[in-house]
Specification:
Elements (H helix, E strand, L loop, with lengths): L1 E2 L5 H10 L4 E2 L7 H12 L10 H9 L5 E6 L25 E8 L5 E7 L1
Parallel strand pairs: 1-2
Antiparallel strand pairs: 3-5, 4-5
């Protein structure tokens, strides 16, 4: 669990009681760069997968913490405005992130796996 310093003592006690590991990174909000530094320094994490929704993915992308993007596209489309996109929540003043195609793979069920490097 990654939290900011604004977390309550009761919540930390709850996590401890459940045996859930946690780190605090950031004063008023979660500082993703600091959190990744803590994971690397204290826990020797060299690489991890971000399997999140649009806001989490967007936060990591905006912080410059993604080096590869792996997208599995199934043979269907969902454009409902209530459903998150791959990346949500990046500030409007940010430029799009350039990608470089690393590999593609097509599957018999018509799904496609795209892998990109972040430029």
């Amino acid at each position: 669990m990654i939290m900011s310093q604004k977390v309550s003592r009761d919540y930390i006690d709850y996590l401890n009681g459940q045996g859930i590991s946690w780190i605090v990174a950031g004063k008023d909000h979660i500082d993703l760069r600091k959190a990744m530094d803590i994971l690397a320094t204290e826990f020797h994490v060299k690489r991890l997968a971000i399997v999140g929704g649009g806001k989490i993915n967007g936060g990591f992308l905006d912080a410059g913490l993604i080096d590869e993007l792996s997208i599995l596209i199934g043979p269907g489309a969902d454009g409902r405005s209530t459903e998150p996109s791959l990346f949500d929540g990046r500030p409007a003043d940010r430029n799009p992130i350039a990608l470089k195609l690393k590999s593609t793979k097509a599957y018999p069920d018509e799904a496609v796996w795209l892998r990109y490097l972040i430029k």
